[in-house]
Amino acid sequence: MTQQKITILGATGSIGVSTLDVVARHPDRFSVFALTGHRQLEKLAEQCRRYQPRFAAVLDEGQASRLRELLAPFVLQTEVLSGIEAFEQLSSASEVDTVVAAIVGAAGLRPTLAAVRAGKRVLLANKETLVVAGQLFMRTAKNSGAVLLPVDSEHNAIFQSLPQPWQGDLAMCGVRRIILTASGGPFRAYTLDAMSQVTPEQACAHPNWVMGKKISVDSATMMNKGLEVIEAHYLFNAAPKQIEVVIHPQSVIHSMVDYLDGSVMAQLGNPDMRTPIAHALGYPDRIDSGVSMLDLIGKNLTFERPDDARFPCLKLAFDALERGGVMPAVLNAANEVAVEAFLGRRIRYDQISSVIAAAMTQAYAHSAQTLDDLLAVDADARRFAQQQLLRCAA
Ligand code: NAD
Ligand code: MG
Fold this sequence. Notes:
By secondary structure, the chain is an alpha/beta fold. Helices cover about 45% and strands about 15% of the residues. Magnesium ion (MG) binds near residues 152, 153, 154 and 228.
């Protein structure tokens, strides 16, 4: 077996840590080429000591000096680099086989795209990159021969429920619908009134999954599911009408594919991201993930329709997809700004959706073909959303 050399973008985050846990179980299969981080330098230093990557990278030279200091007492081969260009180099270097895209937000766009351009095997957790630049991503992957393997649990479940090898055409394999399951988050049963009072701590306390803060808030507003609808649209070439969202509070079924003959294929498992990560790392082989066996005895699996009135963000994401062009990028940028403001207690939870709706109302759904165009749209939408925050505070 040839060993895969891996770069993990966002190694210090929730997905990064779960990936390293799976990688460590298979030293014969995987070796770590590079790790990137941001802010949590002690954690990155500890990962460097444990996994001995050839490179580690952080965003600026100040962080790099601090990381070098932390690593100085140890005899390591790890070279510390800095800057987004270093991230791009480490995800496209000729030695690298696999890149795990686990940075949160549009900040992951450039290094993830660099991996796709270089024709790598790309394990995609960073859904925001697809939401912002889906067309560009899919076109680039087609041209470079990059293999995109979804790590987001729902998309990984859909991938597993599609015929293999997946050829990129739903109609050709008799698929009628993709059914994305959603847990409904911590406020599934809250009234609109109760939701206006919720705190960042409550929003981050997800009932089934342990995740980074931004995706936890997205799960609470159901924007996470909205972003996943857009992600599914690009990954599986699915029309918006072919994508349905169903609330399934137990998070046992991770998503489903509905075929013309009435068959519905599903993937089930415990809610632990090491399962989709191990699936994508090992694909097409099956490898141990460390996740305990699913025990179905005594479990009730239930399903509900999502409520647009209490979860307007899901509807906004469908609207962005219908309006097309750069609208999903606008939605994403405004959401990132609004979620950060909510976490910083500068706006209320129920103001997140108003900031996004306002940003979408003032934007045009023109098409953008290049990375620079998309980054400009992202920057404009962020500026507008920042102004909206001031109105929320007034
Ligand atoms: P996290 O906040 O725990 O970790 C984010 C990582 O990105 C960290 O390593 C951080 O250092 C890095 N990072 C943050 N800002 C950065 C910046 N500006 N530049 C460079 N690096 C930066 O997030 P997470 O929960 O691990 O999620 C990562 C991605 O995976 C997100 O896109 C999320 O939607 C997706 N995802 C996460 C889960 C989950 O269970 N956590 C599930 C499915 C998909
Ligand atoms: Mg998901």
